Protein: WD repeat-containing protein 41
Amino acid sequence: MLRWLIGGGREPQGLAEKSSVQTIGEEQIQNPYTELLVLKGHQDIVRFLVQIDDYRFASAGDDGIIFLWNAQTGEKLCELHGHTHKITAIAPFSSSDDTEEKTDLIITASADRTVIVWDCTSGRQVRKVSCFHSTVKCLTVLQRLNVWLSGGSDLCVWNRKLDLLCKTSHLTDAGISALVELPKNCVAAAVGKELIIFRLSASNNGSEGWNVLEVKRLVDHQDNISSLVSVNDLTFVTGSHVGELIVWDALDWTKQASECNFWDSSVHPDVQPEIKLSQSPNETSVQHLTSDEECVFAAVGKGIYVYNLQMKRVIACQRTAHDSSVLHIEKLPNRQLISCSEDGSVRIWELREKQQLPAEPVPTGFFNMWGFGRASKQANQAAKKMQENTPMYFLELVGDLIGHSSAVQMFLYFGELGLATCSADHLIILWKDGERESSLRSLALFKKLAQNGDLQLRL
Structure:
């Protein structure tokens, strides 16, 4: 049973009647999140959650306010006011040097065309900049260089005190929608359909100045790039609004592999035919990408897909994982995935290996279909061997978290502290392991009783 610990939120509304979407029973044996804390404070859509340290996180959204929270207790630690329009990007930036202690900072950008650096301990503004010609849509911190980047109609490089080090010339009115760090002081910026590679370098004249130079433009995508993710120092991946997924070499920026036809597991459970996704933008758009270095996990339309980088193909999927578009997906340490959707749900999946079945002979062409040709036997043997050596996987639904009444924008995973989700219903929910929380309460009660007993003995 799901237990509500802090009430006051609106009751979750009934979701659309489920058809092809999987459902799960009430027991949900593998789902530990059976308690929840409802955190209230925002007055509009909450779009962003960012982790500050092991127990603190920040939330931001369309009301322009940033809240800092305790992930264990749900306590509101601080309320940051300074923006006059919605927040468009947020990033943590913890830094320290020889003369200063470690400082936990967050950087926020807003539709009011300002960027603010905040001190997470004191809640004060470190600095505010309002020299932008357009809204900053993305922020990226380069910890190795101790600088951070803002992307809008141009790319700006800043130090942590918000001193502008250098910037590009005006790119496009649409501007940069996403950034990802690459090796050798490079970054990849998504600008419409193009992927622009920039290189950062210190000035040669001995000053503290920096230069940012455009070194290459990649035009392989057929539609606007919607998601970027760095896999490791050798690889990064991009996704577009028409369902293209491209794997890139992070050192020379060449295309290593691509996937435009995601297979449909409902056609045949053991064979993976390439079936073109429908061309509806809502069905094909790659909303979010994440990776564990072995695989890339993609939120595509209403579905989630697992793309193996070594095999260069999709190895598992749920084409209809939710009733509406999947907005965010993350891989957990224990072969589990979490996804959230516009339908207001948060779902937990486990990647499991299928039991191998004897491979069926596979026809290899028009003539072989009618029994002509002599290559049929060899082709069938090769296909059978490939199937025997290729592990098959599937995604099983093991948890269904229903608490929000509107689109869940994203979430943060805090390990044993649980899961934080934010939504268009203005709420943040902390999902907790019910068994663990019950044990902690029992332990706290035992300690309190023991202390009271010692006090009585002293009296």
Summary: Confidence is low (pLDDT under 50) at residues 6-20, 263-279, 361-375. Residues 336 and 378 are 39 Å apart (CA to CA). The chain has four helices and 33 strands. The first strand starts at residue 3 and ends at 6.
